[in-house]
# Entry
Amino acid sequence: MKNNIQDTLISAIKSSARGFTLDESAFGGLYLDLPTDSRFGDLTTSIALQLSKTLNKSPREIASSIIETIKKFLKDSPAGGYVREIKCEGQGFINFYLEDKYFYERLSDVIRSGGDCLKSELGRGKGVLIEFVSANPTGPLSVAHARQAAAGDVLANIFGFMGFKVKREYYLNDEGNQINILGESVELRIRELAGERLEFPDNYYQGEYIYDIAKEAQGPAHNRQGLGDFAAGYILKIIRKELDDFGVSFDSWFSQKALAKSGKIEKALEYLDKKGFLYEEGGALWFKSTQFGDDKDRVVRKSDGNYTYLAPDIAYHRDKYGRDFERLINIWGPDHHGYIKRLEAAVEALGHPAKSLSIIIVQLATISKEGKPLHMSTRKGQYITLREVLDEVGRDAARFFFLMRRTSSHLDFDLDVARKQSSENPVYYVQYAHARICSILRNSTLKFKKESGLALLKEKEELQLVKKALQFSDILNICLNTEDPYRLTVYLQELAEAFHKFYDLHRVLGVEQALEAARLALIEAVRIIIAAGLDLLGVSKPETM
# Structure
């Protein structure tokens, strides 16, 4: 398959760096996007606009120069025969128009390989650790955690599909003040169950699950710390079961308590001290994070001798790099946004490139039902849980809906829409396209092969479907480079729409035999690609609906 045309074009663009007396690193992170309007080609890049300020030239002038370099590059490349035209359009976008034969050959490869050719070796040999969810074991998972779980799990699936060695990790904050408060919350409920009347502090955990734990713990006596550990273990079992039902599993669960006992925190701080990145002031130990772009230095050990949250996090990330991961991805909630710069500073102080760590902030989700948002209050135990969403709409809809917006954008999750068995429900719409294709293929008596006259596909809707189907690899590249899986859900909806539009206007069965064979080949390729996309999302692919 000529699936590496994007890599070839990126290499061609980077080769233009010499003409601008730039290093190729100026093109770091470059990838080709898909034009929002198909009239502007099949692939596009805004690199000329990005370089305009650096080079002090107009984007169109830069684009024209890059295009000339690309054309020279392609003369000696087999990929050159698949590029029909390259244009500078708009404010300075470089748009690539590909030959139809490129799409026919790729379509043929998809059918012949059963979709194996869609996989990539881009990340071959590169280790990636994705840490996500990492909710404190103080209560069931909320919808905020559920959205992080969906994003982390699907991003890991995409990285794996692209050839990376991916590991999933849950960082378990199983010690500290929140565990003490959890234990005290359970203790008060035990006393309440025994008939005492007492005031329950506002900062204690008050959900119904605390009563359940109290009933379990009523038997043998527990001291406060022991009761906290008991409650945390009880809740952790709930969390594991919820994640399992959500289709999310982890390769490792990393305990903060075990980290503290291991001596790794002290060793990490000793390392930073030897590098000259620590100093004492006011009885506290400070990290010189301003040397690495932070707005102020940070305390790692307080004057009372206790560590701040940053100290174990430094040790934890030092441990991650020690396990030979070249790339770390942390998926956090919005309440951690202010914590990013200090951790990035710590990673650099530990001797690792800043770009080796990505911190993705997943914004909150609003759950609505019957047109009204459901309100949440964590400590009061009135928040919407992952379990409630699963019970309402099931795993497929839950996973799909949690990914329908950029992770950096707030998400509105409508439970009523997610339950619908109609085209109004995006996941149903995509699954129905897969089931509809399976039905057509079952009802066909015609055998077709990869060579089944794909060039006969000339109708507007046929070509639109061909091109949309073969954007799959480009979409995965975009998800990989933006570290955000949401584009995959958008793409699958667009592909389903292109299929339904094609099928509503053109018969597949009962037409002239050669054309029927070509259309069967086309929809089989579409089926394979929809199935691959649903697999990456962790959503089922029904053959009947």
In short: The first helix runs from residue 5 to 14.
